[in-house]
Design goal:
Alpha-Beta Plaits, four-stranded antiparallel sheet
C-alpha cells in the first residue's frame, strides 16, 4: 500500500522562516527527491500556526521508508538538517500507510 512520509518542522522565530523555506525548498527537499525515489512531494506552511512547516513525500509503501532510513545518505541529510538549524528548528517524522483515498470525478 502507498505510504506517506510526513515531516513537521517548527520554526519558532519569524526571522528564521524565510531562510528555512529557501533552504528546505532549494536544498533539502531536492536532495531527498534525487536520492530516495519518492513518487510525489508536497510542502507548505500551516495557515493556523505560521511557525509550522509540513512536508509530505509519497512512497511506494512503508517498507520504502524503512529502507531509506537505513542508508548513509539519510543519516547525512539528518545530520545536515541538525547542523544547519542548530536547535532553532525542531522536527518530527511519521509514516502513514494510506488505507483509503478518494479523487472526485467531474461530471461532463
Amino acid at each position: 500500500m502507498t505510504a506517506m512520509l510526513y515531516v513537521r518542522s517548527v520554526v519558532p522565530d519569524p526571522a528564521d522562516r524565510q531562510a528555512f523555506d529557501q533552504w528546505y525548498g532549494g536544498n533539502h527537499s531536492p536532495q531527498g527527491l534525487r536520492l530516495f525515489n519518492f513518487r510525489r512531494y508536497w510542502r507548505g506552511w500551516s495557515h493556523l500556526d505560521p511557525s509550522v512547516h509540513y512536508a509530505y513525500y509519497e512512497l511506494d509503501n512503508a517498507a520504502h521508508y524503512d529502507a531509506i532510513v537505513e542508508t548513509p545518505e539519510f543519516a547525512a541529510m539528518v545530520a545536515d538538517f541538525t547542523a544547519t538549524w542548530n536547535g532553532k528548528v525542531t522536527r518530527e517524522r511519521d509514516v502513514i500507510t494510506v488505507s483509503d483515498s478518494f479523487q472526485p470525478t467531474t461530471a461532463t
